[in-house]
Amino acid sequence: MLLGSALLMYPGLRPVALDAQVNIEVLRVDSLPLGRSGSVGGDLSIRTGNVDFIALDVRARVYDVFPTETRLLVGNGGLGFLAQSRFASNGLLHYRRSYTEVSRYADPEWFGQLNYDRAQRLTFRAVIGGGVRTSFAQGDWGQFGAGSSGLLEYERLALGEAAVHAKRTLEVRWSNFLTFRVVPSETFVITSTTYVQSALADLGDYRALENLRLSASVTETLALTVSFDLRYDSRPPDGLSALDTRLRTGVTYTY
């Protein structure tokens, strides 16, 4: 989970199977209206790594925007089948509150999340944390930004008795990201976000994540998207690949 200034960003959802956070950068727009708004959408995915299948993900998010803060609720879920005998599912619920008038240099926020993912043998994860995000270059062309947060993460995994990896873990992690957003035209946006999350007790235990997304507006409320996601876990659970990749195509409706 990484940070974002919700009045300056339109949060986007990454597939739950690939990471522990909602990517607040990927669908960012320049402003959000005061009051309540949101969006619903879906992705058709092709994935390689720990599982190879075609999957469908659905997502929804709701904003409550006030002059000095923004509240965000995100829900995400997915199903995947292969050879009629293998099945994968995932689900996520995420809440975030951002304070936009505290400082002209950075926006503080706090967040909480619950999720699970059968493909990653994750039966339950709970995360709570907080941090800041800042933009260090921006203009009509787009924006460069960075953020840092601390988070407490609890995970419960479905592993065999002989597994080396712990079935339950409680970690304090330091999470950092760099992002850029390029706007070639009013209807086309390119976003890239790179994360590194390290356990404070052992910096060799880290997760690196990359998302590259292209979004083309069809109407004021409808957009077509193509996304590539990559995740590397330096210490994955027993039997799982350290590297996962995913290619997604989808559509998003905003209200």
Tell me about the biggest sheet? 12 strands, antiparallel, barrel
What share of the residues does DSSP label as strand, in percent? over 45%
- Number of discrete domains: 1
Average pLDDT works out at: 81
Architecture overview:
This protein is an all-beta fold and 255 residues long. The chain has a single domain, classed as Beta Barrel (Porin). It has no helices and twelve strands. It has a twelve-stranded antiparallel barrel. The protein is globular and about 55 Å long. The N terminus is likely disordered.
Keyphrases for this structure?
mainly beta; single chain; globular; twelve-stranded antiparallel β-barrel; 67% strand; Porin; 255 residues
Task: Please write out the topology.
Layout: E1 35-48, E2 53-65, E3 69-82, E4 86-99, E5 107-117, E6 122-139, E7 142-157, E8 168-185, E9 188-199, E10 202-217, E11 222-233, E12 243-254
Antiparallel strand pairs: 1-2, 1-12, 2-3, 3-4, 4-5, 5-6, 6-7, 7-8, 8-9, 9-10, 10-11, 11-12
Outline:
It contains no helices and twelve strands.
